[in-house]
Amino acid sequence: MNDFVYSYPTKVYFGQGAAKKALTAELVKFGKTVMIAYGGGSIKKNGIFDEICGLLREAEKEIVEFSGIMPNPTYAKVQEGAALVRERKVDFILAVGGGSVIDCSKIIAAQAVTEEDIWNMEFMEHKYPTEFVPMGAVVTASGTGAEMNSGAVITNEETKQKAGVLGAYAAFAVLDPAYTMTLPEKQVISGAFDTLSHCMETYFGSPRETTLSDEIGEAVMRNVIHNIRALLKDMGDMNARSELMWASAMGENGILKIGKVTDFQAHQIEHQLGAYTDCNHGQGLAVIHPVLYRHMYQDGADQFARFARNAWGILEEGKTKEELAEAGVQALADFVKEIGMPVTFTEMGITDKSVLQKVADSCNLTAGCCKKLSREEILEILEECF
Hints:
It is built from 15 helices and 8 strands.
């Protein structure tokens, strides 16, 4: 295991009714004006908006609304939100939604208190913000674990980059599984697959000898696989929703990453694909992961064999290490089909192959991979995904 420093700044309120507990306890610490950031308005239809506003009024807060945060949030939307925070002198940002809303809010919180352009600061000057408007998160769609860290995935439409940007940590997060009940089935399963992806991207990073972090990761992966299957049998299964919501948080609260250099090559490829196609994140990962791992498993055969045994329960008897590793990759591919996720870009509605070279040329190459990939091989992987 590598050396590490670990801290856990976000306070979690988990369970049904968690919003009332959290907002009653936490809002007294912050100023009067609270901006509610949300997406397309589903929280107004399902009653969550009214519930949250009622709690804010009980706390005698002045409410500012910032709506319309899109999936794959844009840098222009960040700037719009930051301008509103400055104009209305917002004291606290409350992100109510899924990963896109929370990610956008993290960077708004940073941009609102500096005159420097956050994108240029981080990518050109390699400096990172240290001051923020305080924020909290109410999770209504789990899977990204966005409430657990300071990283955000933002699309810069001008530069055609979809990249990780560092912003604020949430002071607290509300995880109420009941808030996911009105989501479409495909959205719930897509989010849960993103959780599985986070675990795998960490697991296949380095070092690849047995570590406590990896053993915890194996348990989380088994939990996600089991509870996706349970939820597909009964979408009203609150226990399965609860487990998946906490697994999402576990995937991104840093515990699985302790002592690791993570991989996240699949995410980097999918992010750039999203910059050119605005595709669904979880679906893109479901297509990319098995294809990517067929290119990698021989170089990380020990870890992929462990993955087969400990995540999928595949018996080692009669198999070489490489055969066991390959069986683990096939189990993942079979699982993608089993849960109704797409297995090709065409199934996702992506038909323009001309973007693939651009994606391969512009995606980040990550350090923790089992195999050092070239841009030529990434292009091969993308072409095999059609």
